[in-house]
Write a structure and sequence with these properties.
Blueprint lengths: L3 H18 L1 E11 L2 E10 L6 E8 L5 E3 L21 E3 L17 E7 L6 H22 L8 E8 L7 E7 L2 E7 L5 E5 L6 E2 L13 E4 L10 H5 L7 H4 L1 E4 L2
Length: 250
């Protein structure tokens, strides 16, 4: 039987996907490194509210590397190098690691670049790492000569998915299942465990404080945040207090 309502819904979804995936691609840089061609292009995707710009980098015939929301950090440097465990990583300068900057409004945001293992071999990752160490800053300086065109200030590369360095645990708050997430850049998020992921007040500091991996917890229950007892029940293999030092909010 023909279901007109279902058909219309399917067409609407396809129309939305077509709209959200459309975008403009244009070359940003072309050159050479170690006798290999280097091609960098920007990809602008139009959204319902704002447009997003990501970049695709290709070194020779290696698998391209994406520089986008999935492979970079939103608010700044990793709060601790230890979050990467044994994953290979290289920092572009000695002064860029172990700092926590989660302020908004930065013209250029310092970030690690995550290159997932499933996308390329470790050998090819090391080739890209050498490129970033020796050539990337020169390229970006030329592109950003007048304005910060590339807003991501890559301070290092990691062989691994960003999710691997994200501390995620689940528990209950206000009678509902919640997900407590600490991102590599130190941001703390308490969200509903559903497809809408509505943010909730956690009572925890908005970012991990360094040094010491400190999370401040508001002990005033009337403010609607987590109690110390409830926080202790949030687990992701380890409890939150196994990973962070939780202290009363000053």
């Amino acid at each position: 039987m023909y279901d007109s309502k279902a058909t219309l819904m399917a067409l609407s979804i396809l129309s939305f996907l077509g709209f959200s995936s459309c975008g403009n691609t244009k070359p940003v840089y072309s050159g050479e490194y170690n006798s290999k061609k280097v091609a960098l292009e920007s990809i602008e995707k139009k959204g319902a509210v704002t447009n997003t710009i990501s970049y695709r980098l290709q070194l020779g015939d290696l698998t391209p590397v994406m520089i986008d929301a999935q492979t970079t950090d939103l608010r700044g440097r990793p709060y601790s190098d230890s979050i990467f465990g044994s994953s290979p990583r290289h920092y572009l300068t000695h002064n860029d690691a172990y700092e926590n900057e989660t302020g908004n409004g930065q013209a250029v945001v310092p970030t690690m670049l995550y290159i997932p293992e499933k996308k390329m071999s470790k050998e090819d990752f090391e080739k890209y790492a050498a490129f970033f160490l020796n050539k990337w800053q020169e390229i970006v300086a030329g592109i950003n000569k007048d304005h910060p065109y590339i807003r991501q200030h890559i301070i290092g590369v990691v062989y691994g998915d960003k999710e691997n360095s994200t501390a995620r645990s689940t528990g209950e708050h206000s009678g509902k299942k919640k997900i407590l997430t600490v991102y590599p850049d130190g941001r703390v998020s308490l969200a509903d465990d559903d497809k809408w992921r509505q943010e909730n007040y956690s009572g925890l500091s908005q970012a991990v404080q360094m040094p010491g991996k400190i999370l401040y917890l508001d002990m005033n229950v009337q403010n609607g945040g987590l109690t110390r007892e409830a926080l202790g029940r949030f687990k992701g293999g380890k409890t939150v207090e196994d990973i962070f030092m939780v202290v009363p909010k000053p």
